[in-house]
């Protein structure tokens, strides 16, 4: 009997999710499977809202940001009654394999579903935060870095013109990958990351010391600080006020926000999405379930879903080392 496959995208959308959908659809169609896409993440699964997918529907899709299936966060999916409802709906549609493209919240949902449904569940890492263990990178992360870098380049022009201090907040939820690599690639002067943050006093003291030294050497110059979201307890405006009060220099806060989630995926994200999606589609019907497909050192790997959030993925050592060599931070 023909296999039936379903795909959903869930949580924060990420550039490259569409490319991943395309790869799954093309490989599955070639194998003769029927493919369905649930709308709005787990919400669509709970309401049995789906659309039929085929090669024609994924034409010209690899370069498009967002997700044609739409995404959502679905807090009620933690409940048992939701897990059972989803299982009933998958059963009713005759689905054999469900692909979940998303981040750790989406994978927790997939794990929860596995308690109620014995079909095959395969996760694919799609989030700009790159905070998923078991894969070197996540789909969307590279585009988000690119967007952050382009934005900081623009901020730098006006910062230079006014010799001002700018604080630029980047996303990342509770992970510093975007902050660290965005700061390095945009040649920012200082970066504040959740993984390395000790406390407000030491960070503020360090910034003021570094800034003082810089100004002694070069006079009044612009200074760009990248701040990862959720790190500074009272928020970016509070830090801006504190630096302004202590330096008597104008400080402007900029929150990049959801701009980082949009845009056409850069080639690294397209490639990652296509490779992971195509490989995952070859696993349909094989005795592997409850896993995420990731890429490690150029190889596709299948890791248990629970391991993707069980450990905190460490920041890339070489980037941290480079930050210490090139930037002002005195993170020990
Ligand atoms: O997980 C992706 C992400 O963009 C995080 O970086 C950010 O903290 C969060 O989603 C924002 O979520 P929302 O779009 O629900 O405000």
Considering the chains and any ligands shown, give keywords for the structure.
332 residues, 18% strand, elongated, 7-stranded mixed beta sheet, 4-stranded parallel beta sheet, binds 6-O-phosphono-beta-D-fructofuranose, 11 strands, alpha/beta
Explain this structure.
It is a single chain. This protein is an alpha/beta fold and about 325 residues long. The protein has 2 domains: about 5-140 and about 265-310, Rossmann fold (3-Layer(aba) Sandwich), CATH 3.40.50.450; about 140-260, Rossmann fold, CATH 3.40.50.460. It has 11 helices and 11 strands. The strands form 2 sheets. A 7-stranded mixed sheet has the order 3-2-1-4-5-10-11, with helices on both faces. Strands 7-8-6-9 form a 4-stranded parallel sheet, sandwiched between helices. The radius of gyration is 22 Å and the shape is elongated. The site of 6-O-phosphono-beta-D-fructofuranose (F6P) has 11 residues, from loops.
SSE sequence, one letter per element: EHEHEHEHEHEHEHEHEHEEHH
Tally the helices: what do you get?
11
CATH level 1 name of the largest domain: Alpha Beta
Q: How big is the Rg? A: 22 Å
Query: Runs with pLDDT <50, length 5+?
Result: none
What structural class do you assign from the helix and strand content?
Answer: alpha/beta
Work out the helicity level.
Answer: 40-55%
Shape: elongated
Strand residue percentage: 15-25%
Our measurement of the CA-to-CA distance between the termini, rounded to an integer number of angstroms, reads 60 Å
How many independent structural domains? 2
Quote the average pLDDT: 96
